[in-house]
Fold each of these.
Amino acid sequence: MFKRGFAGLVLLLLIVSLSGCGYNQLQSTDEAVTAAWAEVLNQYQRRADLVPNLVNVVKGYASHESEVLTQVTEARARVGSIQATPELLENPEAFQRFTQAQGEMTSALSRLLAVSENYPQLKADGSFRDLQAQLEGTENRIAVARNRYIKSVQDYNLVVRRFPSNLTAKVFGYDVKPSFTVEDERALSAPPTVDFGSGNSSGQPAPAR
C-alpha cells in the first residue's frame, strides 16, 4: 500500500515538474506547427491539381509556347517527387528542397500566365477564366497558410530555445523546426498576378475565392 502511494506521489511530482518546465507547451506548439504545415500542403496540392487542366487549356490556343508549357509541367513533376511528410519538418535540407521546388512552380505559373496575356481568345475562354480565378484564390490561400505556419514555428522554436523549457526539449528530443526564409516571406506579399480580367498588374493579392 505504501509503495503504491509513493509511486503515485512520484508520478504526481513528475507531472507537475514537466508542466513547470514547458512540456505541455512543447506539446501544444508542436501540434500547432503540424496543423499549420498540413494546411500549407493542402493548399499547395490544390494548386498542383489545377496545373494539368490549365496547361491543357493554354495548349489549345498557344500550342507553340512549348517551352513555357514544358517548364510548368516539369515544375509540377518536381513538386510531386518530394515526399512532404511531417518528418520533412525535422530535416532543414529537405525542407529547403521543398520550398525551392514550390518556388519554381510559382515562377513557372507566372510565366505561363504572362504568355497567356498575348492570346485574347484564350483570355476569353470560359474554362481558362474559371481556372485562373481558382488559381488566384489558391495563391492567396497559400500566402495565408504560409504566414500561419511561420507564426506557429516562431512560437514553437521560442519554447524549444528558452530556458527552462529548452532542457525539457533536449530530454524529449524536440528540436527547432525550419521555416520559410526572408526571401520567401517577401514573396508572400506579391503572389503572381492572375486576374487579367480586372487589369490588376500591381502584384497585390486579390480577394480569396
Amino acid sequence: MKKTLFLTLLLASGLFLSNYVSAQSFTSVQYTVGVPFGGLKEHVNNVSWRGTTIEFHREVATSVTVGVNFGYNVYYERMPYGSYSKGTATLTGVQYRYDNVFPMLVNAHYAFGTGTVIPYVGLGMGTVYDLRNTDMGLYTLESKNWHFLITPEAGFIFDIAPDMSLKLNARYDNAMKIKDASAFSNLNINFGFVFNSW
C-alpha cells in the first residue's frame, strides 16, 4: 500500500507542478457525512457526522478535470454493557469503538454541459489509511492498515458567482481486502464550496 500512496502523490505532483497546462483549476472544500458498509459497519454501525474533503482539480479537456482528493471521517459508537470476546479473551464492560478513515485519491470528473446547474460523474483510485480502535476500561485494541481504494462519484455543481460554485455529490469508497484486514466501504455525502481560478 505504501507503493500505491507513493504513485498517487507522484502523479498528483506531476499534474499540479507542471506548467505545460494553462487551464482553469478548482479548489474544493466540503463537509462530509459518511455511511459505513461491510467490514466498517461491523465495527461501527453509526453514521459519521465528522468529516471533511479537500479537492484540487485542473481542466485537461472540454468538460474533463483531473485532480487529487483528500478526506477524513471519524466513525464512533458506544456499545452497551456486556461481554465481548476477541480470540480467546473475554472482557465485560462498556465498549467504545472508533474508526478514523483517511482516503487519498487521484480522480477524474466529466461534466455534462454548461449552465447554472451542471451534473457530473467521476472515478478515483488511490489508497485509504484506516486507524481502528476498540476501547474497554484500561484496554485498547488498535489496528492500522492501508487499503487500495476505488471510488465512483456523481454529483452536481451549482454556479453562484463567476469564481465560486456550490458542490453536492455522493462518493462510494471501496477499500479492498488485504492480508491483515477485510474489505470495507462507505458512502460519503459531500457538500461544500468550489473556488475557480485561472
Amino acid sequence: MEALHKRLSSHSVLIAEDDPSTLKWLVRVLKIYFKEVQGASNAMDALELFTAAPVDIVIADIQMPEVDGLHFLQKISLISPHTLRIIMTAFNSNLYLNRAVESGVHLYLKKPIDIDELLVAISSYLPDSPSMTTISNLGEGFYYDALKKTVYKKETPVKLTKKELLLLELFLKNPHSIVGLEMIEQNIYEEPATADAIRMVVVGLRKKIYSDLVENLKGLGYRLNIS
C-alpha cells in the first residue's frame, strides 16, 4: 500500500458526482492518496474547474442532471486527451457499457465503488515516471501537459523555445527547490552558458506565461513560484 500511495501522491483528481453523500465520501477518501482532489455536483461546474486548472484524473457519475457523465468526459478528452477518464455507474447494462466504450473512457466502474479496486486501476494507467505529473497547473489559467510537452492558456497552446521548455520541466521536477545556475546549465545547455544567457531564457519564459511564474533569488538561482 505504501508503494501505491507513493505512485498516486503526485497526481490530481476531479470528481463529478450529483449525489452529495457519495461526492463528499469520495473527496474525503481520495485526499488521503492524491495531491489534490476537487469535487463538483454537476458536469458544468466540473468542466469549469477543469478548464481553469486541468487535472490528471477525472471521475464522473454516468447519470447527472443537464449533462451526463459520458458527454462530460468526451469534452474532457477534447481539451486534454491524456487525462485519465473514469466513469461510475449504478447500472450494468450493455447500453451503458457500449456508450462508455464509444466515448473512449479508460475505466468503467460499477457502484458502489470499491476504493482499493479504484486505486489499483488508476495506478495501472498512470505514467511510469512519478517525478512529474501529466498535467501541471501553472496558475493564471496556464497549465503544462507533460505528454504533449506543451503549455496551454486554457485551451490555446503557448509556443516555447526548446530551452524554455527544458527550463520549465526542470522547475517542475524541482517545484519547491532553488534551481541554481550550474544545475540549469547542466540540464538545458550542451555548452557552457553565461548567467546572462540563462537569464534571457528565464525572461522569455516569464513573458510567454506570466511574470511572477519564476522567482529570482539573487546569488542563489531561481525558483518556480506556484503553489
Amino acid sequence: MRAKPTLLLRVGGFAVNSQQVNLSPEANLLQFSHDPEAGTLYAYFIELEAGQAIYTLEYPASLLLDGDGQIVGLRLDLDDGVTLDQLELALDDEFGRLDMETGFLSILIPGGVAARTVALEQTAILDLDADERILGLELALPADMLTPTRLARLSSAMVSLDDAPHADEGPVVFVPEPEQDAEGAETGGAETRGAETRAETRPQPPARPALRSGFVALVGKPNVGKSTLLNALLGQKVTIVSPRAQTTRVPVRGILSRPDAQVVFIDTPGIHKPSHKMGQFMVDLAERSLPGADVICFMVDISQPPSQLDRQIAEQVQRARGHRLLLLNKVDVPPRRGATYMEEYRDLGRWEMELAISARRGQGLAGLLDEIVARLPQGHALYPTDQVTDQTEQQLAGELVREKVLYFIQQEVPHAVAVEVDEWEQKDAAVYIRMTVNVEKSSQKGILIGAGGAMLKRIGSAARHDIEHMLGQQVFLELWVKVRENWRDDLSAMGWLGYRAKDWS
C-alpha cells in the first residue's frame, strides 16, 4: 500500500513535485447524478453509505465542456486550506488531475477532452467524511447546462438518487439506474424476475403511513427568537434564551417526533459581523448548517425593518438547496410608528411561503410545523423517538449557568463567559456538580462574584433550580470563577473550552 501524502496544497508554487501526489490505494470511482428540480449535479468518488459525509467545504467551480458543448467534467479552484490527504479519493489516474502550480483540481470522465471552461456563479459544496476526505461534491448549474444534450457524455457514469433519506446531514445515497431494453422496459436477471413473481402471489401486509424525516435549519441574525421558537416547538427547554444577542454559540439539535414525522431542528448561532475568533467560529458553524438542511427557516423580526445583515443572510439562504421558508416573528410586537415591513422582507429573496408567527406566545406554530413536515423527504426516523436533543445533560447544565449570567449581569461580562463542567457525580438521590465559570479579565471576575459573593450565589441558585427541573432530582451545585485571558481570540483556549468546529459539525 502506498503511503498517504501529508503535504499541504499551496496555490502559486508547491514545495513538492508531481511524484509526491500519490494515487489512492482504494478502488475509486466516478459517479454522477442530477436533480432537475433543484438544478444540481452531484459527483462522487467512492460508494457512499448513509451518514458517511459529516463535514462540508465550499470552493469556486467550473464545468469542463468538450468541442460539442457537452459536459465532460468539472474543475475546482482550491487553496491552501485543502491537504493532499483530503484529496486522496479524487486523485485517481482515471479521472482526477491536480495542477500543482494553480491549485486546479480537474475531474474528467475517462476519454473526455475539455475544450472550454464555464465558470459557475455558485460555489461547489464538497462533502467530507470523518477523516476529512473529500467524498464528492455538489454543483448548482444553470438550466441550460442540465439538458439531456449537455449531460449526454456523463450517461455512462450517471446513477439515480435513492428515495431513502440519509441518517445524518451528509448526501443522499446513490443506487444504479435499472437497465432497460430497447423498448424502454426495465430488465433483470431470471432470478430477480422470478423472485418478483413469487412475491406478487404472497399476501401483502397493510401499508404503513409514510414517515417524513429530515433536518430543518433555523437561521437569522442574533436575537430574532430562534431559540425561543425551538423550545416552543418542542414543548420543553433544550437551548438557553436571553434578551441579549448572540446567546446561542453552537448549533443545537432539537428532535420532534410524532407518528407521521421526525423533525430535527438545528438552532444556529445568530449570523453577525464577528469581532473576535469566537464570533467567527459561531458564524462559520451557522453557515455550515445551510448546505445539509432539507428545509431552511429564515427568521426575521417583523417589528423592525430589514437591516443590511438581514439582506446578507437572505442571500446565503437563497444559495442553499433546501426548501426556503420566511418566518416573520414577533407579530405580537407593535412595529415602530405603526409601519409594516412584510413586503420589504418578502423582497429579500424567493420564498416558498411566508409565515407570520410569535415564538414567545406560540402563535402560528401549528401551521408552521405542518408546512415544514410537508417538505421533508419520506423515510425513517433519524434518532430514537424518545430523544429530544443531541445535547448531553452536562452540556445543558453548563448552558443553564451561562444563561443566568446573561440574565443577571448587564455589563461587558456575559459574552466573555465560558462554563466548564469539572465534576458530575451521582450520590444516592442527588447529583453533585462542580463547574468553573471562565472570564477574560480580573475586573470581570469581581463583577461576576459580586460583593461578598452575592452575585455568584444568585446565579448559582437560579441555575440549580433549572438543573433540578431538568434532571428531576436534587442537585448540589458548586461554582468557581477563573480568569482565562482573552480566550475568545485564542484558538487553543477555545478548543480547551469545547469550542472546536470539528465537534459541532
